[in-house]
Design brief:
Blueprint: H1 3-8, H2 16-24, H3 47-60, E1 65-66, E2 77-83, E3 86-93, H4 97-108, E4 119-125, H5 130-145, H6 172-176, E5 184-187, H7 195-205, E6 209-211, H8 214-223, E7 233-236, H9 237-247, E8 252-257, E9 260-265
Parallel strand pairs: 6-9
Antiparallel strand pairs: 1-4, 2-3, 2-4, 5-7, 8-9
Helix pairs in contact: 3-5
Length: 266
Amino acid sequence: MSEEELLDDGDTSLDSAEEEEARSRPPIDAVRPIRDIPNQYVFRFEVGPAILAQLLEKLKKIPIKPLSKALDAPYPGFYQIFLKDEPKYIGKSSRPLGDRLREHFRKLSRRIGLEISEVGCKYAFVEDPSLVDVAEGALISFFSQHGFTAWNQTGFGSKVTGHGRGNQKISAWALQFPPNLDSPLFAGSERPLLLWNLVNQIREQSPLTFSVPRSHALRFKSAHPNPVSISPRELPFQEWVLLLEKLLKPGWKISRKGESWYIVEQ
């Protein structure tokens, strides 16, 4: 018997009942809630808790590492933030984890009452980014029940508030660990430099959000076209801000609101 005959041997067609069932079967991703039957007769597969159980086993085996050593993590996944080896925050990211952890690193740096060297983390990558969002609720719920998410409801994980959005209220986390406005920053240049470049040097080291908003950037550059002479030096952040205010052209100011300070037109 030939290979084709072997493959074709036997009746593999569906009878009429099976065909009807196949046609009526819902798509694999369809969910039809059942509410008119007692729960004891309904099986509901909860994806989040299922993922959580495996993730917890994974996290147990992963050692805590300094946050500064995790900023190049290349894939999406879940992570924990620790302070003095005590779990404080659980999070997730559909972006590379390093991108999100760098945001946290910057926020945690230069804080009163907190040393960045005492901050550690664990993380686990996922191959399917869709699972990150599916399991988030179960993950936060579990760690909250065990007291491991002290920072999750305090505003720690909030994104930077853009200029002009709301009242930019200071979060409970920021009140507990306020930015150190006396943090020393090194800026300046041996050669004259544009004020725009000086602002960016300070922005990169600032203990809070400090920048020229995108909507003001072109006008700022146009209003400050001439280089300024600021020799390299180390000054507290507050002193740099005062120096910048003296260099601003008329019609410009530094708006100080919460943890978001912006250089804007008056």
